[in-house]
Amino acid sequence: MNHLFKAFYILVVALVITPLTMQFGWAQETKAAEPLNIAMILWRGETRVEEGFRAYFKERDIAVNLQIYDTERDLGRIPGILDSIRKNPPDLVYTWGTGITATVAGKHDQVDPDKNITELPVVFVMVSSPWKTGIAAPAGQSRPNVTGATHIAPLAAQIQAIRAYRPMTKLGVVYNSSEDNSASNIEDLTALGAEMGFDVLTAPLGQNNEVPSADDIAPAVSDLAKRGADILYIGPDNFIGTHRDALTDAGFANGLAAFTATELEVRDGHAMLGLVSRYELVGRLAANKVEDILINGVSPANIPIETLDRFSYLIRLSSARKLALYPPLSLLDYAEIIE
Question: Which of 277, 264, 207 is nearest to 44 (CA)?
């Protein structure tokens, strides 16, 4: 076992949340016996992330009142939501995803108190690249009211996960070019490809301010297959996540498996494999940060933005059968097989 594979193996063997160091200084002091009032601004209703968030407090017998605001995948709803929040301020605002978080909290160097939440702590989840998208302050700096939990495994580990299953020199990516997190991910993949010896074949949708359509996905996948893609890559992309079945169905039609960096596409969809953070544990990690802020009195500026330090390797066997691409026996030692 070479050192890269050994490091990858260690990375996915277990799921662990590293305890956070307690530091004090946040001006707000909420007693544990009093309910915590949290406004949750969600992209598409509650997910397993929120299940884990709720479970964390229930297991610790901490009372919480959650005010749910569902954007229904429409960022245009956020100004109205923020008006409602300001009229009846909660103790903390929870945001789901890059688009919502950037709109609610602003980017670290473009905060507008009239448009963004600045007077309340904000804890985000499911932001794949908080530094590159400007939500997080640069290294060595922090934001006074913003922290959160990201969820994407290191890109090098993702590539090792793909190559542990089968050889890969051409990675095919269909993505929404208008999503900051997707464009950032493509930049990082391209740079990594030069280091690790693979080409990134891109099929951007939504260019020239056009609204992408699910109908664009199948032709894009067909084009990637003709260009010699070894596998399809599903990154942190809300549009592709919404239309994941269109992507994987097109993959099946062209003999291409799909790898994903997020849990939902394997567990609830038909991606063949993924190296992922479990949504429930991302929610628990965020809840730990909320507890630090509202109960332990820690300033968000002193709470690191972080991800889980262990990830799960998931394989959907039904997709492997459909493509006749069965996993190597070595993966069965630590992969979770989903029927």
Answer: 264
